[in-house]
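Chain A, query sequence.
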Amino acid sequence: MADSSGTATAESRARGIRATGRRRKAPSRRRRVLTISLCAVVSAVLLGGAGLGYVYFKLNGNLKGVDINAALGHDRPKNVDDGSMDILVMGSDSRAGKNGDYGRDEGGARSDTAMVVHVYKGHKKASVVSIPRDTLIERPQCSTKDGKTVPGEQRAMFNTAFEVGGPACAVKTVESISGIRMDHFIEVDFTGFKKLIDALGGVDITTSKAIDDGNSHLHLKPGKHTLDGEQSLGLVRTRHGVPGGDGSDLGRIQLQQTFIKALMNQVKSVGLLTNPAKLYDVADTATKAITTDTDVNSVGELTGLAKSLGAIGSQSIDMVTLPVTYDTANPDRVVPLTKQGKQVWDALRLDRDIPKSAIKGSAGDKGGTDSYVK
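Chain A, predicted structure.
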């Protein structure tokens, strides 16, 4: 991202930190897939067509933004200046429009997938913390897009935050749980996810056992597969029909984490820069599929984020699930393990690796599906 105001500012932004010394509040990307993968796609597209003004204008017009900073004001965790970055990546399960194929619209979108992506100082590695949608939390008071106030609630399911107050309420809820300020927000929906996978030409995975789930329309025999968009969506949504799985959201999260790494590897292997037509198609699809915070809903800012994350490979990402245990009053819900959860959030706040002790004994990483897909 060049900056006409001077070399020092340009270099500061390239490092992901503003010249003022404040942590950069730019680039963010979207939901169910994972910000780093999408940024890699968009970065390749934009770098490959950097001289085409029309391409820049067209892709810029695809992006949608939500002003999280204006919605939340100053009632937020401290903006720590340490060179790291925290991004909330969400997927909404709205059944409106074409998404109606996946069930009846019950009036509001909920967050079907939620991940806090912590990019460490230097931007060479990252940790991802998945938050189960069925986690019972204390949801803070939120404001809706039309200015109404939604009161806070005890023992609310985590995914209701997005439903009642949209992206801003989801960010506020995550910040209240973690004590960490989110620099960016990214969201994606069912249809956009499928189209992106198809534009990439599918994603290669290997299953060690058959997956047969009528609910998510996924039927795979053991062996190697190239999943198209529909099958990929089925994989990241499946809760049943997975051998050894517990049929819960926790098992689904493990599949999502495995798929994300496979997707990242696919993005790096498809050779977009040598195929201009495919490059543009992927970029056009990706930028239409996401909603970000307004700090990164432009091609220029998004490219800057993509460049800053370009060195992170799938092998440099540690993925865990928020430490939880099953709720004694309702086994279909989970509650955070306070002490262990604090270990997770403290580690990220201090820009340190998440200790193995933080997830020991947690139900979050015992969904039973981690060994069935590679």
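The chain has one domain: 7-350. The longest strand covers residues 111-119.
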